[in-house]
Write a structure and sequence with these properties.
Distance between the termini: 52 Å
CATH class of the largest domain: Alpha Beta
CATH architecture of the largest domain: 2-Layer Sandwich
Shape: globular
Structural class: alpha+beta
Number of domains: 2
CATH superfamily of the largest domain: Fructose-1,6-Bisphosphatase, subunit A, domain 1
Strand content: 15-25%
Radius of gyration: 19 Å
Bound molecules: 2,5-anhydro-1,6-di-O-phosphono-D-glucitol, manganese (II) ion
Largest sheet: 8 strands, mixed
Strand order of the largest sheet: 4-3-5-6-7-8-9-10
Helix content: 25-40%
CATH topology of the largest domain: Fructose-1,6-Bisphosphatase, Chain A, domain 1
Oligomer: single chain
Amino acid sequence: MSRITLSRFLIEQQRQGGTLPPELRLLIETIGRACKAINHAVNQGALAGVLGEAGTGNIQGEAQKKMDVIANDYLLDANEWGGSLAAMASEEMELPYHIPGEYPKGDYLLMFDPLDGSSNIDVNISVGTIFSVLRCPPGTVNPTEADFLQPGTRQVAAGYALYGPQTQLILTFGNGVFGFTLDREQGAFVLTTPNMRIPESTGEFAINMSNARHWEAPVKRYVDELLAGSTGPRGRDFNMRWVASMVAEVHRILTRGGIFMYPKDARDPEKPGKLRLMYEGNPMAFIVEQAGGLATDGHRRILDIQPGKLHERVAVFLGSREEVERVTGYHAE
Ligand code: AHG
Ligand code: MN
Ligand code: MN
């Protein structure tokens, strides 16, 4: 059978269900192109002088890597002129980015984490790009922060690119999860996993254990039980992984199952967790649910949360259904 490139896949999706409007198809192709450019810079690394600190900070109070800034610029440049977007918002920018006056405006809002896991860029461990697409409220001329504040259930598309041993693009429009692998010679993403499904049971968990002393009681209990393994109430052993790139953890979970946790902790009472709802929590929750898994903040489905601000943080428990149900259940007790 001939190979299905991203372009062909998108055109066929558009034809089949009529669920993928041409502007959204164009937007996804453009994001794919920007990810190829980011991938190229990531691959070049020291050869292109893109490693190390940018010497600036973002709105989250985090030091920016050079590649955080480069990836953000690539996504803005690629997406501002195509006519699909009303505005963009990024983890790396305080305010929404408006489409310059010389270009046509479209109906969609794009949000992204340009480089996820950027603490790993200098040590050559996988990083990625995460994105989420919403519809702009009808009749909006100049979208403001308020127009972005829609719950994750309203996402019309979400995905991530993973820059690892292979470069992959994972997409959902709400009818399953599709995985593409970049053929570097052809310069095309090729469909390699048409229907990604997360196993319901797992023996693998991911959490930053160095924060254990700051966790809330339900998380302590859940992780203690995993650590007790076959000698504890679970009666079987669990294995642990922590990459420190959410994209890589989610990709592992989509491939072979697992649970990923970044809970709220007592380090900074102002922040309900480290990860950002709009750029990390929502797109990953959409993908995980579409693959048969679950994503909660310990209490509620992440996708149901009404965001209060653009850079809002959220606690994240996602992955294999049985484990996410269990740890969410412990929060309710
Ligand atoms: P980012 O690089 O976009 O700021 O995201 C990093 C996030 C996420 O990818 C990862 O799961 C987590 O931060 C790692 O946190 P620790 O530093 O606590 O390991
Ligand atoms: Mn991130
Ligand atoms: Mn980032």
